Automatic annotation (TrEMBL):
Organism: Aeromonas simiae
Protein name in the entry: NAD(P)/FAD-dependent oxidoreductase
Domain RsdA/BaiN/AoA(So)-like insert span(s) in chain numbering: 189-340
UniProt keyword annotations, A-Z: FAD, Flavoprotein
UniProt KW Ligase keyword: no
Domain of life of the native organism: Bacteria
Residue ranges of domain RsdA/BaiN/AoA(So)-like Rossmann fold-like in the record: 6-393
One Pfam family in the UniProt entry: HI0933_like
InterPro entries: BaiN-like, BaiN-like_dom_sf, FAD/NAD-bd_sf, RsdA/BaiN/AoA(So)-like_dom, RsdA/BaiN/AoA(So)_Rossmann
Cofactor: FAD
Length: 395
């Protein structure tokens, strides 16, 4: 028998569950469909199992989008504080790490439980193990053919996320559905993802795997982040590299300042005065991991000698290397390990107030499937909550 509901939400992840609960509280009969065995799988593995569920600094400036203003409305109507209040009502204990990032004290499962409890209280029906075979537009709403039978709905919310982590069931379903209805989809690529190095660089730095240092990394467009960089067996990772990966394009170089926050030429001059007889390796080894300094010398990127022996051009070359070490990655690890997908459903196609398609009334897109991608640090969940919450008021 054909099911009939007010709202179908495709995707039982962060944005879909938030949207479903809100629509349910408005009295809408809501059915959430997901092809996975369990809801919220990305939430469960997020933040190293502790879910960095929001960022107290979340504002539109922390998001990449072809229209930088698009996210303003949703982020203003459902703020980080709104999610914190919700978490507190559900007894989730949390702590702030660096840079406004809020993590669960216990487990990311608490966030999934919170969302499922909200859905339960709002009378939402959740159906997993369900493949969507086809979606048809009808005069009044939509008809879905699924592996569990047909269902009709007045409003259809697409919350199928991005392409990262295909092992967790990520699919391009949302993009294809948007295209089916004539909506433009901006090209997608992996974001918040480690870099791979060319073979020669990879071999040169392989024995430094595990070394971490505080850096300021810049992309060619001038975007810069100051956070930790981690050298791995495959290339470069750590928060600084994940952040800048979203701003990097194939072939481009990264400039890495390994003494961030310092006037490097002036610092070198001070060191020459204070420790003229000490070698550069010794002095730098007090500021940076020794193995890293030795590697720069072994590769001939820095010359090691007592500081008083450097002439002015040589000191300038040392300053240039430390402040603007140039690395040209081979690529990224791609969707396999990326946290997010850049690009997606073009925001020009959607109302920023409701997340509803301008062309197809009743069709909504929320969360990562939309061309809104946050920095690392809880911003992506905040977008999922905010966009889901907003759509939930209208769908
Ligand atoms: P989400 O991916 O949450 O949900 C999509 C749902 O749709 C899934 O349940 C999926 O099974 C379902 N689906 C997909 N295709 C379907 C189909 N064809 N039919 C039916 N259902 C389908 N962000 C952050 O802010 N803080 C953090 O700590 C982290 N950590 C993190 C770690 C890792 C390893 C990853 C991969 C990602 C993060 N993120 C993050 C990013 C964050 O997980 C992501 O941005 C949100 O989960 C996006 O929420 P959505 O609801 O859009 O998609």
């Amino acid at each position: 028998m054909m099911k009939q509901v007010d709202v179908v939400v495709i995707g039982a992840g962060a944005s879909g569950l938030m949207c479903a609960a809100q629509a349910g509280y408005r009295g809408r009969q809501v059915l959430v469909l997901d092809n996975a065995k369990k809801p919220g799988r990305k939430i469960l593995i997020s933040g190293g199992g502790r879910c960095n569920f929001t960022n107290v600094q979340a504002g539109h400036q922390a998001y990449l989008c072809a229209n930088p203003h698009f996210s303003k409305s949703a982020l203003a109507r459902f703020t980080a504080q709104d999610f914190i209040d919700l978490a507190e009502r559900h007894g989730v204990n949390y702590h702030e790490k660096a840079l406004g990032q809020l993590f669960c004290d216990e487990s990311a499962k608490e966030i999934v439980d919170l969302l499922l409890t909200e859905c339960d209280w709002a009378g939402v029906t959740l159906q997993t193990h369900t493949e969507i075979l086809a979606v048809h537009k009808e005069e009044e709403g939509f008809r879905l053919e699924t592996s569990q039978g047909e269902v009709r709905c007045a409003s259809l919310v697409v919350a199928t996320g991005g392409l990262s982590m295909p092992k967790l069931g990520a699919t391009p379903f949302g993009y294809r559905l948007a295209e089916q209805f004539g909506l433009s989809v901006l090209p997608t690529r992996a974001g918040l993802v480690p870099f791979t190095l060319h073979q020669a660089d990879k071999e040169a730095f392989a024995d430094l795997a595990g070394v971490s240092l505080d850096v300021e990394v810049s992309a060619e467009d001038g975007t810069r982040f100051r956070e930790a960089m981690l050298i791995t067996h495959r290339g470069l990772s750590g928060p600084a590299m994940l952040q800048i990966s979203s701003f990097w394009l194939p072939g481009q170089a990264l400039r890495i300042n390994v003494l961030p926050g310092r006037d490097i030429p002036a610092t070198l001059q001070e060191w020459v005065k204070a420790y003229p007889a000490q070698e550069l390796k010794t002095v730098l080894g007090r500021e940076l991991p020794k193995r890293f300094v030795e590697k720069l010398m072994e590769l001939g990127l820095l010359v090691n000698q007592p500081l008083r022996q450097y002439n002015a051009p040589e000191l300038a070359a040392v300053a240039e290397l430390l402040g603007r070490w140039t690395v040209r990655p081979n690529g990224t690890e791609g969707y396999r390990t990326a946290e997010v997908t850049l690009g997606g459903v073009d925001t020009d196609e959607l109302s920023s107030k409701t997340m509803e398609s301008r062309k197809v009334p009743g069709l909504y897109f929320v969360g990562e499937v939309v061309d809104v991608t946050g920095w690392l640090g809880g911003y992506n969940f905040q977008w999922a909550w905010a966009s889901g919450w907003v759509a939930g008021q209208f769908c």
